[in-house]
Amino acid sequence: MAKHRYINTHFWKDNYIINLDPTEKLVYLYLLTNPQTNIAGIYEINLKEIANDTGIIKEIIDTILKRFERDSKLKYCGGYIIIKNHLKHQDFKSPKLQSGIAEIINSLPEEVNRVCIPYIYGMDTLSHLILSNSIQSNLIKSNLNRLKDGFFEERSKENTKQYFDEYFEKWWKFYPRKEGKNQAREFMRNENMSEADFKKLFQATRNYNETVTDREIKFIKAPINFLPVWKDFL
Predict the structure, then answer these.
(1) Which of 37-46, 82-91, 108-117, 125-134 has the lowest mean pLDDT?
(2) Cβ-based burial of 86 (10 A; exposed 0-12, middle 13-18, buried ≥19)
(3) d(Cα 35, Cα 44) in Å, to the nearest integer?
(4) C-alpha 194, offset from chain centre
(5) Which residues pair with 42 in a beta bridge?
(6) Given Cys at both, which of 24, 28, 71, 155 links 20, Cβ 3.0 to 4.6 Å?
(7) pLDDT tens sequence across 79-115
(8) Please, are residues 124 and 85 in contact by the beta-carbon 8 Å criterion?
């Protein structure tokens, strides 16, 4: 299902955008509107994908991203784009949207989570937009309080089984090869994994994903083949 991303028409008159060259403007606009974007402004994408979509070679894209990072517009961390102050452009009055942002950030690998929490409140994506302190404070006090342990809400071991499907779906979303979902689910359920195990599994999956970024899908382990050996990637 297609997503809608709305760009303020002032984009082309923004002082920062005006001073970019045409290629940089294209990349900046792409980072705001590509299919991987989400309401949190934090999403996983690799340089090869950006190159394929824009027609710009990876080396130039890498140079442009480094410029944007030097200019405090974004960070590229662990294969994730983190757009600075993207949250300022969202409707924080919506509890559903607040919950969605919290869920996205909660599902990030720990090293990206540590970077993004202070970074996303730092300054504007566009220089003319400002988020009031009261809105930012309300957002932090609401559902984003779920981020305190950087990954999951704190839950007792007894409640882990209750949230198994939620944890599994989060893992399935980030595993790169999508086949044998039911088989993978049953294998994982039979392992009686604790919340701590799920945290480690997500980190192991992130580590594995980084090793197969440019690999054809047929050369990536099927989920049922990865799960028995996931601890090898910690």
Answers:
(1) 125-134
(2) buried
(3) 11
(4) 24
(5) 82
(6) 24
(7) 999 988 776 665 555 677 777 777 887 788 877 877 7
(8) yes
DSSP state letters, 99-161 = HHHHHHHHTS-HHHHHHHHHHTTSS-SSTT----HHHHHHHHHTGGGGGGGSSS----HHHHT
Element housing 34 (H / E):
none
Which amino acid, 177? R
Q: State how far the Cα of 85 lies from the Cα of 68, in Å rounded to an integer.
A: 14
Beta bridge partners, 12, equal none
Residue entry with tokens 């410029």:
67
Q: Between β-strands 74-77 and 42-44, what pairing exists: parallel, antiparallel or unpaired?
A: unpaired
76 backbone dihedrals φ, ψ, rounded to 5°: -115, 105
Taking only the tens place, the pLDDT of each residue in 178-207 is: 888 899 988 888 888 877 888 889 888 888
Q: What is the pTM of this model?
A: 0.52
Q: Give the Å distances, CA to CA, from 4 to 27, 33, 37.
A: 18, 8, 10
Q: Report helix angle 22-33 to 58-70, nearest 10.
A: 80
For 202-231, write each residue's pLDDT tens digit: 888 888 888 887 788 888 899 999 999 999
